[in-house]
TrEMBL record:
The lineage of its organism: Eukaryota, Viridiplantae, Streptophyta, Embryophyta, Tracheophyta. This is Major facilitator superfamily (MFS) profile domain-containing protein. It comes from the Eukaryota. Residues 185-207 are annotated as: Disordered. The keyword Transport applies. PANTHER family: MAJOR FACILITATOR-TYPE TRANSPORTER HXNZ-RELATED, SYNAPTIC VESICLE GLYCOPROTEIN 2. It is a multi-pass membrane protein. Residues 1-344 form the Major facilitator superfamily (MFS) profile domain. It comes from Gossypium schwendimanii (Cotton). Keywords: Membrane, Transmembrane, Transmembrane helix, Transport.
Length: 352
């Protein structure tokens, strides 16, 4: 069906027309604050672990179990909130043409959250105690709760639910804030049939450490909308493999640090692209459920790592620990190539 000839336009065409402006900047800031807060909550374990271990007289195994419990909670939350989002709404406002680039920008909030948490712990821990670090770290999450009512509903979600009038109202608000205009014609829910066809066919230095992931974010921003999601992840996983391989044997401290920084940089870039690619693979009706389940499965790695890999390092089995990571990288690269298609520049599907 020729939508333009019929005087109709889809949501993706509307988002492309209004472009990226002040409205999306506000939504990006709000969503980024959530990513910022989560990064702080993850990083905090690295800084309070030793203090908690000493005060509570924990063994090394019990200290590792603290991280495992946290990731177990994240596993449960990823599944639960994915289901809730698919039933009660979520936010999506980015044009398809540069969605990947802006999602990489969004991911920088994680890095800045990590840097902020490291700085906070560096300043607060020596002067107060680890409980104050926890209290200050909760402030961004509290701010998110206060600002929740300001964030508008996703027009894509509303269209998928058949509520095009409310979706149009939000699109008009986006156009007004961005000082642009919507396409001429009438908004329709989407091109579900076309999508079906497409699917069938195709310490003092602590504050510095998290900032070293920024080059990984820059690399992912360069690659994601140029070579696509799949190849971006494969390239950066390959680079991480190269950086980790020399660590199979003992290396000088300075070289070990540089190699770990390189591996971490590329791992962060891969994680960023995976965070973009995963939701894009699912139709709107189950997008956050699917992404939530994928995230939950990923948390299993976060639960196992402190118990296995960290345990191996603590027992002076560095080679075995590094080999474990190298095997995981190879398996991941193979799995990436098995995905049926890339989502670079594609409109998001609304139906399965």
């Amino acid at each position: 069906m020729d939508y333009k000839a019929a005087g109709l336009y889809t949501l993706d065409e509307a988002l492309e027309t209004v472009g990226f402006g002040k409205f999306q900047g506000f939504v990006l800031g709000y969503a980024g604050l959530g990513w910022f807060a989560e990064a702080m909550e993850i990083m905090i374990l690295s800084f309070i672990g030793q203090a908690v271990k000493s005060e509570w007289q924990l063994s090394s195994g019990q200290e590792s179990l603290l991280s495992t419990i946290v990731f177990a909670g994240m596993l449960l939350g990823a599944n639960t909130w994915g289901l809730l989002s698919d039933n009660y709404g979520r936010r999506h406002f980015i044009p398809a043409s540069n969605r990947g680039t802006w999602m990489v920008v969004f991911s920088t909030f994680w890095t800045f959250g990590s840097i902020f948490e490291a700085t906070l712990a560096w300043i607060v821990m020596p002067r107060l105690n680890w409980r104050w670090v926890l209290a200050f770290s909760a402030v961004p999450s509290f701010a998110l709760l206060i600002l929740y009512g300001v964030a508008p509903e996703s027009p894509r979600y509303l269209c998928m639910k058949g509520n095009t009038s409310d979706a149009l109202r939000i699109l008009e608000k986006i156009a007004s804030v961005n000082q642009t205009k919507l396409p001429p014609g009438v908004l329709v829910s989407g091109r579900s049939n076309d999508k079906d066809e497409e699917s069938a066919s195709s310490e003092n230095t602590a504050p510095l450490l998290p900032s070293l992931k920024l080059p990984g974010l820059l690399l992912s921003a360069i690659l994601v909308d140029r070579v696509g999601r799949k190849q971006s992840m494969a390239i950066m996983f390959g680079l991480a493999f190269i950086f980790l391989t020399p660590l199979l044997i003992q290396q000088p401290a300075v070289l070990t640090t540089c190699l770990l920084f390189g591996a971490r940089m590329n791992a962060m870039g891969t994680f960023t692209v995976a965070s973009i690619y995963s939701p894009e693979l699912y139709p709107t009706s189950v997008r956050t459920t699917g992404a939530g389940v994928a995230s939950a499965i990923g948390r299993i790695g976060g639960m196992v790592c402190p118990l296995v890999a960290v345990g191996l390092v603590n027992e002076c089995h560095q080679t075995a620990a590094v080999a474990l990571f190298l095997v995981a990288i190879v398996v991941s690269i193979v799995c990436i190539q098995l995905f049926p298609y890339d989502t670079k520049g594609r409109e998001l599907s609304d139906t399965s």
